[in-house]
Structures are given as structure tokens and as C-alpha cells.
Design goal:
Low-confidence stretches: none
Strand content: under 5%
Oligomer: single chain
CATH topology: A middle domain of Talin 1
Number of strands: 2
Strand order of the largest sheet: 1-2
CATH superfamily: NCX, central ion-binding region
Number of domains: 1
Mean pLDDT: 84
Length: about 350
Amino acid sequence: MVKKILYFMLLFGLAAVVLEWVGASPVLVFIFAALGIIPLADLIGEATEELTIYTGPRVGGLLNATLGNAAELIITIFAIKEGLLDLVKASITGSILGNLLLVLGISVLVGGLRNGIQSFDRRQAALNGTMLILAVVALIIPSLFSAAIEPDFQAEKWFSESVAVVMIIIYALGIVYSLTAQKGPLAREAVPHEARWSLPKSLIILLLATLGTALISEILVGAVEHVTTSLGLTEIFLGIILIPLIGNVAEHLVAVEVASKNDMELSLAISLGSSLQIALFVAPLLVFISLLFDHTLLLIFDTFELVALFGAALVASIIALDGESNWLEGAQLLAVYLIVGLAFFFLPG
């Protein structure tokens, strides 16, 4: 039923193209484009999952580790092209917050209400928590030290690029560890199922979904400035709340679904793995992609984003460390997400 709804939502993407072509209201274009990206992001994820069946667990794990946030990466590339750097950095922050607080919170809440206290590998949770704190620290340090070198833009740029290289290296090492060890911080396992698509069909759908996402993302980003003006929202709020949901809602539903089936191990792997991928791979990769455009992205976040990131990582790590979860912990994570969302909503632009 959910898949049928998602496939039907592809019509929203087509409608967004038509509305953009006829010069309709930018707010309407933004809404339809946002709804249209959701099924395209799901198709990218589904095609990737199908490919993992043909490639085997090791190459499949690598595919999941590199394509898990493809839709959001595409959206942020077009945002960089348009010079919406605040939106890009807010989207990075929002994706991490969304996975650690919203997705994990709903998963723990639903799983706890349905199955009672749920258990998972405590050592694995500790490893994930360590990698998560490292990822957040890697984002915090450039922002804190930039104040000392702020007048020298070239030095700031080199500093961000150097940190980005280190982050990508540690991400690559995490992938190697996850592929060679039985489990690892980046081991984002696929939901087990038999192949439904042939290999050529999986590749074609992945290509078409990626191209469709690129087209709709350009339309979406083009309408952002009009939306912020018309609705009185800030770029930061759109990036923190809306953009991450648009690009990852299908994956979020999977995390909740497997938690409700008492597979908290896989649910944690999805939510934490996605957070790590955004922090250690997507964010530094965008730093180098921005060099292709006139707008340079630096790994420098504002104080509010840093506080929210550190708080989310700390709360999520503490909850995961004992190897057990219950519905109350899920409610606590959601409460923190709600507080953060309200804070960014009332934060002036």
C-alpha cells in the first residue's frame, strides 16, 4: 500500500515540471517538487537495495554507504550552485538531527510500545556512539577555530578542505572496517528480501531516478527564496526541518518498520549509519564540489547548529550505550527534536 502511494506521488514531480514551465506560484512549485522528490529518493534506495542482491554483501555494503543519501546530496549540490550555503549547512545539520532524534525517536517509541524493552548489541552501539561523537567533533572544530583565522579567507578555506580530507579518510576506514568485520559503524544492512528486479532493470531505474531527482531538485531549489519570502520562513529552518525529510522520508519509514518488527539492530544501523554518512562523507564531499561553482562551502556552522548537533549526538549515544531501549527513551528523543525544531522556527533569519 505504501509503495503504491509512493509511485502515485511521482505525478507530483511531473506536475512540478509543468507548473515551473507555465510560471505558476513558486510556493506551489516548491510544494509539488518536494512531494515529487520523495518517491524518486525511494526509487534510488530501492534500486540500490536490489543491486546489493546481485553484487553480494561487501559490494552491496559499499553501495549503501555511498548512495544512501544520494537524493539529499543532489539537492544540496543545486543549492550550492544557487549560492544558498546557509541552506546547505542547515540541511547537513538537519539530516543528522533528523536521524538521531526524529527517526531513532519514532523507531524506539513504536518498537517499545509494540514489543516492550528491545535489545541490541551493546558493543556495536558503543562503536557507533564513538564514531558519532567523532563525526560531530569533526564538524565542530573548524567552526570554533575559524574565529581565530577569520580575516584570512584563504586560510579558512584550506583549513576546511584539510579537515574534509581527514573526514573522508576516516569514513573510508569505517567502510573498510564494516566490510571486513562482521559489523561496523557504517554497516547499513539491507532489509532482507529476494530480488524482484533484474540487474538491468535495477540499473536503469537507478539512473532514471537519479536524473529525475536532479531535475526536480533544480526546480525545488529555484523556488526556495520565493518560499522563504512568502511564508516568512528562514533558509535555516527549511534546511533543518524540511529538506532532510524530503530526501530521506522513505528510508525513515523503513527504520520505523523494522523497529516495529523487533529488529532494533537494523533500525539503529539505518538511523546512525545515515547520520555518519552525512557528517563524514556528504558534508566534506560538498566542500570539494563547491569548488566547481562560484560559491565556496566552508565547514563553519553557527553556534546554534553546533549546540544542537552536540546535544543530539550526546543524547542518542547515551540512550544506545546500555544495549536496550524502551518507548520512554523514544519519547525523550522526540521531545528534544521538538524543542530544537521550535528553536530554529523562532530563530530570526
